[in-house]
Automatic annotation (TrEMBL):
<dbReference type="InterPro" id="IPR043502">
    <property type="entry name" value="DNA/RNA_pol_sf"/>
</dbReference>
<protein>
    <submittedName>
        <fullName>Uncharacterized protein</fullName>
    </submittedName>
</protein>
Length: 102
């Protein structure tokens, strides 16, 4: 995070119909069962900031769970890192004895 913390804000439920709220809860439950989400109290974390999550309809049917990190993203600063170039990627590959393509 940068030198300034994001302001606190209230968590809000999306203005969905009953069916969509049930679908949203089902998606959270499914991802929790898969280990993608954990309850903060289960891992000893105190919540300082909440990002809104909502459903986006997929073209193939069903819904995708999306979380908007834009608000908190304005207050974070990226870690400096070096991006690999083509040469630094190809040199290790050139030393391999086998390349298996499936």
């Amino acid at each position: 995070m940068g030198p300034v913390q994001p302001p606190q804000r209230k968590g809000r439920m999306p203005q969905y119909s009953k069916n969509n709220l049930v679908e949203l809860q089902n998606k959270f439950d499914e991802l929790e069962c898969k280990g993608v989400f954990r309850k903060p109290e289960d891992v000893g974390i105190s919540v300082e900031y909440i990002n809104p999550s909502f459903l986006v309809k997929k073209a193939s049917g069903g819904f995708r769970l999306v979380t908007a990190f834009a608000d908190v993203g304005r207050y974070s600063k990226p870690q400096p890192s070096l991006m690999p170039d083509v040469d630094s990627t190809l040199r290790p590959i050139a030393q391999w004895k086998y390349i298996i393509k499936v």
